[in-house]
Predict the 3D structure of the following.
Amino acid sequence: MNVLVTGGAGYIGSHTCVALLEAGHSVVIADNFSNSRRDTVERIERLGGRSVKLVEGDVADERTVRELFEQNAIDGVIHFAGLKSVPESVAQPLRYYRNNVFSTVLLAAACIEHGVGKFVFSSSATVYGSNDVPYREEMELRTPTSPYGSTKLASERILTETAASAPGFAVTLLRYFNPIGAHPSGLIGDDPNGVPNNLMPYITRVARGKLEKLKVYGNDYPTPDGTGVRDYIHVCDLAEGHIAALEHARPGTQVYNLGSGSGVSVLELVEAFERVNGVKIPYEFAPRRPGDLPAYYADASRAERELGWSAKRGVDEMVRDAWNFERNL
């Protein structure tokens, strides 16, 4: 297939592009590089062993999307492009709605107009809101705790209703949890612009001496050590989940959790990083952030049953590969 990957130079997108190339697919990357680097595209080609087509542009722009579909024979779309900071979304909700939801509308409309039958959407566990754990796909969704989560839920509804109205249109919603780690080569990984909003790149930058100490947001949650518990998944496992979703797509809407199925606290992740990499991580506690939940993790059995996918890499591999990437920057 010739696959359009929006946000393909970003963290998860870049690893998925490599996996697509390794699986024999062709790739068109659309990225505006608002939170990614241009040289990542060259690294994708190096790891994938083949070239990709790059279109620099914003998929929340109607003209950009129209030209993408008019100038490329696209068989499927994997839509990653979007803003993803929970606290930033609380401060700037309109920016998040415009960017994340409007891009989904434009891409879905272009797929219908041009007969593109496969659409894989990068969703999030945040659509479950404050719910019982483990999160299961058939759960009734609750109001997300942040505008970021609300944009993911709105996009899911748009795509689900579009699939219901368009026979043959195959939508796969991938709700994933907390991707960390990097490609084992050290060539691509999580390298956000500015101060990271996510935990692992913050840890690696502290380890490298780029930041003085880690801020742990909240130590009074109802968890074993008081810090937030998350379901961490290796980004390469996550990328492989997208390939499985694309290749198993069928008309209508399918929903899958992509996670490890177990929870790890912030302090447990820090301890693993220190133990595996032999680097001390100084940290201090800070107040809870708006929109953060105490704990959540996935029931990912549906993905294993229907897609033949499961997370294979453990926390030790995640922290090892993340540190390897940081040292190669």
